[in-house]
Amino acid sequence: MSDGNPTLEPALHLPRELTFGRPKGEQLQEILEGYIASLEPGTMLPSERLMAERFGVARMTVRSELERLASKGLIYRLQGRGTFVAEAKIAQSVMLSSFSEDMRARGMTPGSQVLSQEVVAASDIVASNLEVAPESNVVRIERVRTADGEPMALERAFLPSRRFPGLEDEDLAGVSLYELLERRHGVPVHTASQRIGTVALDDEEAELLGTPAGQAAFLIQRVTRASDEGVIEYVRSLYRGDRYEVHTRLRR
After folding, report:
1. Which segments within 150-211 are labelled E, that is strand?
2. Domain boundaries along the sequence of the chain
3. Which of 46, 107, 118, 237 could be joined to 155 by an S-S link, Cβ 3.0–4.6 Å?
4. Is the CB of residue 231 less than 8 Å from the CB of residue 131?
5. 178: how many CB neighbours lie within 10 A of its CB?
6. Residue range 9-30, pLDDT digits in tens
7. Are 170 and 198 in contact (CB under 8 A)?
8. What angle do CA 130, 136, 140 make, to 5 degrees?
9. At the topology level of CATH, where does 10-85 sit?
10. For the segment 28-39, what is each residue's pLDDT rounded down to a tens digit?
């Protein structure tokens, strides 16, 4: 990790003036995104004053663009210390894999903080997604998922209790649920459908994930099926918007 550099390095060949004909803020954001991409996570950026002088713009313009970059998760700001380059975002896998499998594939150590693990009566929405009768017994598992010790996602999973007896008593700290279902219950995961939206974290969610309240997050809702097409899981996960992004490949 770099110890920071308070000036814009000439070697990067950054312009000292912005061109006419395009909004200054738009140009400044493009320049800063390229500059940030060349730096290591944790590198301190120049001050607002230095950047305003460099590019001949108002400090408010610089501040506004830095706030945009922070909202994208490219930088973070520490009160009284400065602005720093953020860790690279993790692309959400397009393969059907568990959180643990996904993190291990990226060379990171997955972990879990189990918040609750119990048998409850299925609400209407849970029953509908699991294709069971309302009020049926389901196992609810709520975990904070971590990678290298850092909170990444808040996961609330529901599974039919009848199909997975004793699941409420399993030790799920640092365990892949999908691997457990196959190893202990002989039920491999086969297919899944999921929807992705965005929400703002409330106070409790933000505290669990170690982010400010109101931080943007991805809400991922997944319905998972076994090879016999029976639904085995309905899960709602909140992934930190400052650490995740979604990549898709399109073909015409």
Report:
1. 150-160, 189-200
2. 10-85, 90-246
3. 237
4. yes
5. 20
6. 433 445 556 666 677 778 888 8
7. no
8. 65
9. Arc Repressor Mutant, subunit A (1.10.10)
10. 888 888 888 788
Neighbours of 99 (CB within 10 A): 24
Q: What is the CATH number of domain 90-246?
A: 3.40.1410.10
Which pair of tokens denotes residue 24?
């200054």
pLDDT-derived band at 96 (thresholds 50, 70, 90) equals low
* 61 in Cβ contact with 25 (< 8 Å): yes
Token pair of 132 as six digits: 């069971």
Side by side, the strands of the sheet bearing 216-226 are 110-121, 137-147, 150-160, 231-240, 216-226, 189-200
Q: How many residues does the chain have?
A: 252
How confident is the model over 76-90, as a mean pLDDT? 77
Q: What is the largest CA-CA distance in the chain?
A: 68
> Quick count: other Cβ atoms within 10 Å of Cβ 100?
22
